[in-house]
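Lab notebook, bench 4. We co-purified these components, and the gel suggests they stay together. Before we commit to crystallization screens, I want a quick structural picture of the whole thing.
Request: model the full complex, all chains together.
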Amino acid sequence: MDFTIEVNNNKVEAQKGETILTLLNRNGIQVPTLCYMKDMFPTGSCRMCVVEVEGRRNLVTACSEPVYPDMKIKTHSARVVESRKMIVELLLSNHPDDCLYCERNNNCELQGLANTLSVRERRISGNKNDYKIDQSSPSIVRDPAKCILCGRCVRVCEEIEGVSAIDYINRGSKTVVGTPYNKGLNVSSCINCGQCIMVCPTGALHEKPHFPEISAAIQDPEKTVVVQYAPAISVSIAEEFGLEPGKDMIGVLNTALRKIGFNFVFDTSFSADLTIMEESAELIDRIQNKGRLPMITSCCPAWVKYAEEFQEDYLDHVSSCKSPQQMMGALVKSYFAEKKQLDPKNIYSVSIMPCTAKKFEQQRDEMTHEGITDIDAVLTTRELVKIIKMYGIDLNKLEPELTDSPLGMRSSSGKIFGTSGGVMEAAVRTAYYKLTGEDLTQFRIPSLRGNEGRKEAKLNINGLELGVAVVSGLQKAADLLEEIKNGKDDIHFIEVMACPGGCINGGGQAIGANEEAVMKRMKSLYDIDETDSVKFSHKNPYIKELYERFLGEALGHKSHELLHTTYKKREVML
Amino acid sequence: MENTVESIMERYPKAGRDSLIPILQDIQNKQGYLSEEAIVKVGQRLKLPASKIFGVATFYNQFRFEPLGKHHIQVCRGTACHVLGSSSVLEELEKQLKIKSGQTTRDGLFSVEVVACIGACGLAPVIAVNGEFHARVTTDSIGEILEEYKEKELEGAKHE
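Here is the predicted assembly.
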């Protein structure tokens, strides 16, 4: 404590340099915010968080104003509340009145504010704008009419992802968030990560829905409908059903998916194990044969697109491995189809991902082989939750079931793919085995765990010094690559994920999960790693069988055909 | 085109983001508008994303994003013209040409720009086509003025 200030006539301890908002939050006093973003520089532009400070003529924004000794604050005086209410009324004055039909109905910050501030009539009626919905992107739908210009998407795109696909266009009442020359998001530099959706307070941004096509496939008697879910999914849905955040729901998730009508349920963690087999072989090959280093992971499709747009020089550093989603897709329509004597053309392959960029990845040209698409449709976690509810399935009442064999069995290395640092840890475990013939006794690498945007470790494998780095949030990746360009040479392998914290905080996850919930998801994944008996991808018996019966060897001919891909420089408006 | 942007950039050897607006003005002076290619080029040099440059440029009325038409129409929206009905003149013009201010017709013949006072208040409401003034314009006379330029165009075509 540095000094005291007075809040609503009570003495409160304050720390020098903190903002009023930080102090209020610490003391459990809630002030509404809109443009405020935790851990980012405050702009104070929406003025929703205003408070009254004694001796000041105007109301001040709590998010941007530092505290000072003997400050006297009123957080909910009549003047303050009236001012906040007026802001909401003005925001609503040109807002489309279609809440009932809105993606974010009941989960909308604007609706929430109007409710808290008891806005019950329309006093101000503004001109509605006639912006068109941008449906051009394979991942993200933008509806500028619902945008309230809080700027959070613009900031996340610029400051966290280093992309700046969108910005404020025009001036005054004509201001709109948009792309250069108002072209579609599909031709912009957007990497489809969906972090903009995660921070959007209204229904102005949401993912492109895929369920109608999937539903049609389920009803088609000709089709065998196969589903896979990403490692992060089973630990990311519990709170949406009133359960403890982070709880692993894998058993009942299998049951629920079968009830919805999927014929086979697979776990993407299996193909994550496979990714590790291929990727660790590639890493060792690059090290031993003086290939391009550092090698960079390729499982995040937002990162891959970013590299294709912004990091042309590093494209041959990116691992040629397809992502686990696409590897699974390729195996379902080859290995699995052969096993079950199914015509690949009659298999409809769905994946459930905590990600919007996977919808883009699925439709990349490279992901279709002789007219057969690896994956046919992608659902986000949000879509999954909606569908489970739509089908009236009560997860609390379901008996857990197992995933289908053989593409459903995983090691815990595959499971920790869902968090930033997990891919690296899993890869190091298998690389160690491949180089030494022994398993790591200390399978944990603590310095690669946790919520920091950048983590590094130095490992010694039989005299081979291996430097590894893990980054999440693409601005962090850009910073690291800049350092490497400027001479940093102690890193041999980099894991990149576009979403801060990795897939557990992906752009397809439930809206409104706080940091604590995300950390619980992470803990849940590492808990699984502790308790699982198979902790190494190379120890997964089904992976061994896959190589023995079908693939041959890692980086072999069949692997190259099915599991590896290429990248190309992308011309977009940067 | 590329050379134009390049040669303009050469005049700003140590340009940072604070030089953005003068550079955009120079480009517009040379080319009549800001093309996508120009913005991308400037962005590469100044290390600014295209979205940011487009955002800055659209903030100001002075920048256009389409090439000028063969006949560039400036509509005065200064006080005197406003009082004498320039808003309906502009509305009629936009209706007849099927474009908004800042845009160019598909055939490239006309473009419209809104300007503040052009210093001919005695003639209000006034429009200037290629710098040639037309005084006391009404919603009725707009059609005749446009017709005049279209006819000139046809005659020109005949002679060729």
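DSSP finds seven helices and four strands in chain B. Worth comparing against the SEC data before the next meeting. Residues 2-59 of chain B form a domain with the Arc Repressor Mutant, subunit A fold (CATH 1.10.10).
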